[in-house]
Amino acid sequence: MFPEFTLRYARLPDRFFLRFDPVPVKAPRLVAFNRALAEQLGFDLTAFDEQQAAEWFAGNTVPEGAVPLAQAYAGHQFGHFNPRLGDGRAVLLGEVTDREGHLRDIQLKGAGCTPFSRGADGRAPLGPVLREYLISEAMHLLGVPTTRALAAVTTGERVFRRVPEPGAVLTRVAASHLRVGTFQYFAAREDLEAVRTLADLAIERHYPELASREESERYLALVEAVQARQAALVAKWMGLGFIHGVMNTDNCSIAGETIDYGPCAFMEAYDPDTLFSSIDEGGRYAYRNQPWIAQWNLARFAETLLPLIDDDQERAVDGATTVIKAFEEQYEAEWLVVMREKLGLVKQEEGDRALVEAFLEALQSGRADFTLAFRRLSEAVEEDAPTLLELFETREGIEAWLPRWRERLAREEVGPEAIAERLRTVNPLYIPRNHKVEEALTAAAEDNDFTPFEALREVLADPFTEQPGREAYALPAPPTAAVFRTFCGT
Ligand code: AMP
Ligand code: MG
Predict the structure, then answer these.
(1) Where are the transmembrane segments (predicted)?
(2) What confidence category does residue 487 fall into, taking pLDDT thresholds of 50, 70 and 90?
């Protein structure tokens, strides 16, 4: 069933990883499988055997040609540097070549205690596994670069967090698992050769256009390229009200994918200070801070490459500083691209930024649901729509804004119908609402009932199209079910 493994990472020198076979589990059961993704990865599904698949995705059977390993990395966690994190419970089976010819990592998360476990249990509870499954797949369908979920299995064993929970393993697919923290691991050891190897691997896998650049330019160009992807990525998060929640440098992907779905959540009523994670006491990773944290992480990345950027350290620092400084402008530009689209604007005008900001102010003062407010703009292109207005607790802001917006829309090349259609293709109706996610996870973990999970998965598979009978999935949480805190508990 598995496609052929390439073993790119396993061929790196020994100090990049520790060979580690997944620890078998008691009674693996396949609870979710992503057929479309499997096909894209070249899996042969003609004789698909569910029990065999469960054995594979639990790590009980290692597929032929895989060389399982735990990757070494470091990372700044909430601003504090930890020189040795590494895969404490994840195992990379190897890389496969997808239908488009790209290498993709296949990793089992929750596969047992590796030598990087630091006293933790090496396992994952079912709730967080399903959470990552649902949200990463939803992000993909919402058009955001992200790691993907190929399968989830339960293990037949219990894991102990706040309460005992069913154990599970997630099969994660990524463009790669190279992180800012991977570079930091070797930079902290002053292992310049290893940093160069990693940088060349990042170029080979994610930025092949840089391979032909002069060596004297290549590594600063890599910082720029990673930065461009991060700026675009975070702008997309901001456009969806997505809050990652743990933007530590070990969770910052060199490929520019969203990675590590822990306490992440989508904002409902618009407030830039929104923060869900219970472990983020200082609000470091609140919604409004995300771009600036991405920039901070990129600065840490650039630091690891300084010796490769220029022999003269002063010149290296100057070059890197100039690049990192430019993040602000790049991000602002990406953000404006996202927000213009969300308001149905294709032309670019001077006043657009102010128009976006005024809309956000109206959302904030009216405590309106972020997702639905954008979505229902499609109903208000020509005249005030009660469906939109009812989202606002106070309406002065939005009522003053709508005529301004329409005046601007009148200068677009297309008419109201086409603009409404445009709005519906960029502003989703369905996102993984926190209370719906919680409901699905609780039913699965506490009652072994996967119906709500399946139902939510189905709704999220088509986020831009109205699905009759599924209105409840589009609505913010009723006050009794609102989720204000998410727990890492992973
Ligand atoms: P995360 O918060 O998921 O980004 O993880 C940070 C670090 O903690 C990584 O090195 C993980 O591998 C490790 N880690 C998280 N949970 C566990 C666990 N249950 N067992 C072992 N290591 C873990
Ligand atoms: Mg992580």
Answers:
(1) none
(2) confident
